[in-house]
């Protein structure tokens, strides 16, 4: 039997308008729901992962294969820290598919001198290592339309940042698809990935527009960022989760078993802060309206640096609910006070609502008149003149850290004594990410952004006093105040 003759015109038509095929089905790959969300993402920068065992490497590889089949002439690159690790994860999945890849798509796996997967339609996937920025610069001059970074938490954040500069297309009909990354919490990239994907997208609930440089300058061609939270893969044996649950190291266990980004070495509140426990929606824990509930504000002043105001209510059993956050910069004291009043509902303004303000705000302005009887000119005086009732906050830093820890700790009744509305993103970010001081482990690192932390400290001192004792308080069987659901 002679070989079939392929009409060159039909082949050219396929290259210009490739047939619609189900690449995954043809290779026997059935994505889990989370993997499918990753494959459906059209944003330029998509991260996938969280807990271990979510099929991250498989999803990354299959996404690259689909891109190459769908777009003739496309170049993809999959990077990991070392060739050994590529061999253990990505390449070990390519080898069993060699025959199917060649039969279905005319793709040939080339192992030497460097591993590549070359497709009949002119596309290819290059498998490379990149641990440092110097490794990444070996791609200088290269051109990729799709780049994947596997186990991104293991590499210096400068590596993918440089690889992004290689994503471009100079050929008509070959689109730029962007960067895809898989990762777990932990390791060298933890802080960057948490900030870039988890915090900016509010744990994958929204898409982030990356339209500003680090120094605030506009990016001419902004791009979108998405985070897809991985789920337990149906392709992993059930005993795997039991083995993760048996890990002795509590930080590593939370990172791998739960995908907990607030579990990290050197973070001040990693032992007591749990986003799943402490962050709630206003509908879940409504603050009862009216003046029967004790409320207060905690305010950390800043002008060039952000100023922060937090509103809190104390319910039964000393449960404090932080129900509003105001976080702004470049506002004068008068503008800050006006912004506070504007953020409040009319019925709140009729309550005796006190703002616990940093004691340094009572220092008289340097250019204020010093003659006897002259009015005091200070930040606190400007707040008061605008109608914000201010008092000096208690400013014990170490005591504040202990008080926050105590309020976060889950008590014998199964509840903590601090809950935060999901509408307070900066407080959530800082409770989950503030590092300890390198010189005093009892304090937070004052070089980190800590304005919401300071506001919370002032608020809790104002509502709870300098200590709180809930360990031996008698528990009532009646419904808790937060279990009723009155409307605002």
Structural class based on helices, strands and sheet pairing: alpha/beta
Average residue pLDDT: 87
State the low-pLDDT regions, or none: 1-6, 469-488
Q: Distance N terminus to C terminus? A: 80 Å
* Count of individual domains: 2
Tell me the CATH topology of the largest domain: Rossmann fold
Number of strands: 16
Strand content: 15-25%
Instruction: Evaluate the radius of gyration.
Output: 28 Å
Shape: elongated
CATH superfamily of the largest domain: P-loop containing nucleotide triphosphate hydrolases
CATH class label of the largest domain: Alpha Beta
- Order of strands, main sheet, comes to 3-4-5-2-6-7-1-9-8
Give the CATH architecture of the largest domain.
Answer: 3-Layer(aba) Sandwich
Keywords:
single chain, 488 residues, alpha/beta, Rossmann fold, Nucleotidyltransferase, domain 5, 2 domains, nine-stranded mixed β-sheet, seven-stranded mixed β-sheet, 18% strand, elongated
Overview of the molecule:
The chain has 488 residues and is an alpha/beta fold. It folds into two domains: 251 residues, P-loop containing nucleotide triphosphate hydrolases (Rossmann fold); 209 residues, Nucleotidyltransferase, domain 5 (2-Layer Sandwich), CATH 3.30.420.280. Strands 3-4-5-2-6-7-1-9-8 form a nine-stranded mixed β-sheet, sandwiched between helices. It has a seven-stranded mixed β-sheet with strand order 10-16-13-12-11-14-15, sandwiched between helices. Helix 17 crosses helix 19. It is elongated and about 90 Å long. The N terminus and C terminus are likely disordered.
């Amino acid at each position: 039997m002679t070989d079939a003759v392929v009409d060159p015109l039909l082949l050219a038509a396929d290259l210009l308008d490739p047939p619609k095929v189900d690449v995954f089905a043809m290779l026997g790959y059935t994505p889990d729901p989370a993997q499918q969300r990753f494959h459906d993402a059209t944003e330029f920068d998509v991260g996938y992962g969280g807990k271990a065992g979510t099929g991250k490497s498989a999803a990354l590889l299959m996404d690259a294969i689909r891109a190459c089949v769908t777009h003739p002439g496309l170049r993809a690159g999959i990077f990991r820290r070392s060739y050994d690790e590529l061999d253990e994860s990505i390449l070990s999945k390519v080898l069993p598919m060699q025959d199917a890849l060649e039969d279905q798509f005319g793709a040939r796996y080339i192992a030497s001198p460097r591993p590549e997967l070359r497709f009949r339609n002119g596309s290819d996937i290059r498998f490379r290592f990149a641990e440092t920025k110097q490794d990444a610069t070996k791609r200088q001059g290269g051109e990729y339309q799709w780049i994947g970074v596997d186990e991104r938490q293991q590499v210096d954040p400068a590596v993918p940042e440089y690889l992004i500069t290689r994503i471009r297309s100079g050929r008509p009909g070959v689109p730029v698809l962007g960067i895809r990354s898989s990762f777990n919490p932990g390791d060298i990239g933890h802080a960057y990935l948490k900030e870039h994907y988890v915090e900016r997208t509010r744990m994958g609930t929204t898409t982030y527009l990356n339209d500003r440089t680090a120094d605030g300058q506009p990016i001419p061609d902004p791009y979108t960022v998405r985070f897809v939270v991985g789920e337990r893969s149906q392709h992993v044996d059930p005993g795997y989760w039991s083995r993760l649950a048996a890990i002795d190291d509590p930080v590593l266990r939370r990172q791998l078993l739960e995908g907990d980004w607030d579990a990290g070495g050197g973070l001040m509140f990693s032992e007591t802060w749990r986003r799943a426990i402490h962050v709630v929606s206003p509908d879940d824990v409504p603050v009862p309206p009216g003046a029967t509930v004790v409320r207060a504000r905690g305010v950390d002043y800043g002008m060039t640096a952000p100023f922060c105001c937090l509103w809190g209510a104390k319910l039964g059993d000393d449960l404090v609910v932080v129900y509003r956050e105001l976080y702004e910069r470049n506002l004068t004291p008068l503008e800050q006070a006006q912004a506070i009043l504007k953020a409040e509902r009319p019925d709140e303004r009729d309550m005796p609502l006190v703002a616990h303000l940093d004691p340094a705000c009572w220092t008289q302005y340097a250019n204020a008149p010093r003659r006897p009887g002259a009015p005091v000119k200070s930040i606190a005086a400007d707040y008061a003149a605008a109608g914000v009732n201010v008092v000096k906050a208690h400013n014990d830093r170490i005591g504040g850290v202990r008080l926050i820890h105590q309020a976060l700790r889950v008590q014998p009744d199964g509840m903590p004594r601090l809950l935060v509305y999901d509408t307070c993103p900066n407080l959530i970010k800082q409770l989950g990410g503030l590092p300890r001081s390198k010189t005093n482990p009892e304090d937070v690192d004052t070089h980190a952004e800590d304005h919401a932390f300071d506001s919370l400290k002032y608020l809790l001192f104002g509502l709870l006093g300098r200590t709180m004792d809930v360990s031996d308080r008698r528990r009532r069987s009646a419904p808790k105040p937060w279990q009723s659901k009155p409307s605002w």
